[in-house]
Design brief:
alpha/beta, two-stranded antiparallel ribbon, 7 helices, 11 strands, about 40% helix, globular
């Protein structure tokens, strides 16, 4: 086994978590599940794989991932979502890695899927993220949404061979629901940070992200799925600033109260 701890945050992911854990068990003997009140069989599946399962109140993506990091057996952390499956090339890369320098983080490429179709172009077609790091130097930021890893200046980035296969959405309906959900969280984040809606980010920016995804990044080559992704990308960008504008109007004369959205990761 590789001396890394895998941290996964979950809610109601019984449909995909087994595939993730099948491969995770080939990597390490320490898998931590931070669950946000699953009502399906997610927890029983995780326990059947020997995972350490903890149920916590939802404090945000980054905050809950950091809870898992604190509970980890090892200092090296591999962060995975329940709908992401490492392939054997990535598993072998992890078994052959030299994990001695905590100032190194590892970037991993993704292959994303819309339903069962692999997306090769557009914004989804070139996805990659830093997912392996040492907790003595690196933690997650803790905004409501779009958490990022906080990397000290001395950190060096390396890439690993292999892929995470990301089964993000089953269909356009689910994709649309996620776009709306994340737009609401982003609007709250923007409002709290002092960002405000304007004509550019309400009307021009959404058009630009559609053109970039569908035309410049060749999303049209992914067929109807490429069209659906680009259209929902446009909608998400517009909704973020639409909801932000609503927040500005609603809370102009009274204090902002943070909503307690629950995660469906």
């Amino acid at each position: 086994m590789v001396p890394v701890s895998i941290v996964i945050i979950t809610k109601n992911k019984s449909g995909c978590i087994a595939g993730c854990l099948d491969m995770a068990k080939l990597i390490t003997n320490d898998i931590i599940i931070i669950d946000n009140g699953s009502t399906d069989t997610t927890l029983s599946i995780a326990l059947s794989y020997g995972c350490r399962v903890y149920q916590n109140a939802w404090d945000g993506y980054g905050a809950n991932k950091n809870k898992g990091i604190e509970l980890a057996k090892y200092d090296w952390i591999l962060s995975i979502d329940a709908d992401e499956i490492p392939d054997m090339e990535l598993v072998n890369s992890l078994h052959n890695i030299w994990l001695k320098n905590p100032e190194v983080v590892y970037d991993i490429k993704f292959r994303s899927y819309f339903g069962s179709k692999r997306i090769r172009f557009g914004s989804w077609g070139r996805d990659h993220h830093i997912r392996l790091f040492n907790r003595t130097l690196v933690k997650w930021s803790e905004p409501a949404v779009h958490e990022t890893l906080m990397l000290p200046k001395q950190i060096k980035k390396k890439s690993l061979k292999g892929y995470f296969h990301h089964y993000s959405v089953k269909n356009a309906y689910e994709c649309n629901n996620k776009a709306v959900y994340y737009a609401k969280l982003s609007a709250e984040k923007y409002y709290q940070s002092g960002k405000r809606a304007n004509i550019i980010n309400l009307y021009i920016s959404p058009i630009f992200v559609f053109i970039k995804s569908y035309i410049l990044l060749l999303g049209f080559l992914d067929g109807k799925e490429g069209w659906a992704i680009s259209k929902i990308t446009y909608k998400n960008r517009w909704l973020k600033y639409h909801y932000l504008s609503q927040l500005e109007n609603t809370y102009k004369k009274k204090p902002f109260i943070k909503s307690n959205f629950a995660v469906e990761c």
